[in-house]
Every structure is written in structure tokens, then in C-alpha cells.
Amino acid sequence: MARVTSIRTLCFEQPAVPIHAHRFAGRQQIVLTVLHNDAGQAGYSMARAHGGQPGRGIADAIRASLAPRVLGQDPLHRERIWQAMVELEPAGYVPVFAISAVDVAPWDLAGRQLGVSVAQLAGGRRDCMQAYASSAAMPRIDDYVAEALRCVGQGYRGDKLHPFNQPARDIALCRAVRQAVGPGVALMLDVAKTYDRMDALRVGHVLEELDFAWFRGATAPPRYRGLRRAAPRVARAGDRRRDSGWARAGCRQPPARQRAGHGAV
Prior knowledge:
Layout: E1 4-15, E2 27-37, E3 42-48, H1 55-70, H2 78-86, H3 96-114, H4 118-121, E4 130-134, H5 141-153, E5 158-161, H6 167-181, E6 186-190, H7 197-209, E7 214-216, E8 246-248, E9 260-264
Parallel strand pairs: 4-5, 4-8, 5-6, 6-7
Antiparallel strand pairs: 1-2, 1-9, 2-3
Helix pairs in contact: 1-3, 2-3, 5-6, 6-7
């Protein structure tokens, strides 16, 4: 039975993705976590530092608070490792982004131990997934419409909108994009937990009318209660339909070759 013997973190800096490019001086830091086992294998995971914060803060949290809960564990017991980490988050002892930076590494390491991919380890239901586009935050509805049409023209059959986070404008935006791309394109909305409950209900009903695939981050967790009434056929706030078969393409992400300024932490 292999055990986790070491955790290493690396911090990279790269241009911010377009949705965040106007914030944080246009840069963001990524933390790569590497777990090693006593069989000489390695598993990898990474997460971005949030809100323009330095990756070193995530790396410090991993080293000081999460490493003692991961070292010595069997990577095959991924749920046990996750539970040991996540119980530190509600009280604020560890940022959720630090947990994210570690979470996938036990899966990767377990897959290497067993000689299977992480997809197979997770059930291997599909051989491929449809890619959806993910919008930047833009100033005008016309900009969103033009970008959605451009992505459809490139072959994408789904588009997730990051809107104005103003319910009335967001409704107008969703109607305009649906009218432009037609019924054959899956649309999603992500408002980054900026709505209160009543706004989430109001927008959710419109999304149901427009046949949106899901409604992500509608409101902060304490306000989730009762949101299922917003749109029974639209995924509950913060959730993605487990059966959707979609994966984010990141068509507006900077390519990996643009990363720069990496260094060990």
C-alpha cells in the first residue's frame, strides 16, 4: 500500500484570463501541487490564486495546514483525504483555493498507482465531452451577442455567459443571446454569487423560459434555501448538471506557452 511521502508546490504567473484581465494588473498566479508516494510516483493538481492574491499564500497554507493531513495517507483513500482537508475551511483556517490546489493530486496519484486514467478512476462513462465557450465580462449586450455568434461559428455548441451581475440587464442579455444563437445552442449563466435570493428567483424563471442548461453561482451559500423553486429544469444555483456532458473549453484562456515568471515556493 503506497503512501504519500512528500508535497511540493510551484508558483507560476501568467496573463489573467480575459474575464479577469481588467483586474489585478492583468496577471494571475497559479499554484501547482505535486504529491509523491513511496513507490516513486507523482500526482499533480493546480489552482489559481484568487482576487489577485499571490500564490505563495496558497502554498503556505498547503505546507502549514494541509500537508500534515495528507502526508502518510493512502492516495486510494481520496475521500478520506478530502474530508480531512475540507473540515478546516468553514472556520477559515484554510482558504478553499488551497484545498483545490491539492484535491486532484490524490486522484492523479491513485490513477498512476492503478495504471488507469483519472477519467477511468471516476467511472469512465464517456470517451469524450462537448466543449463549451466561456465568455469574458464585456460592457455591452452587443459585444456578448457578437462573441457568442463567433464561438458558434467556430463550432462550439454551448456558451457560458459571465454577465453584468445586474438582474435586469442580465435578463436582457440572456434574451438577446438566445435569440441570436437559436435553440440549438446550450446556454449557461454564471453570476459569481452576486444575486440575493429574490433576484436569483426572478432571473431563474427567465432562464427556464429561455431553456438555459444551468445557472451557476446564483447566490452565496447561506441563501441557497428555496432556490430550487427558481427553475426546476435549470440546475440549482452553484451546481452543474451531472449528466450534461459538457466541459469548459476555455477558448478565451491564454495558451500555456504564455506562462512566465514561474519559480519554486
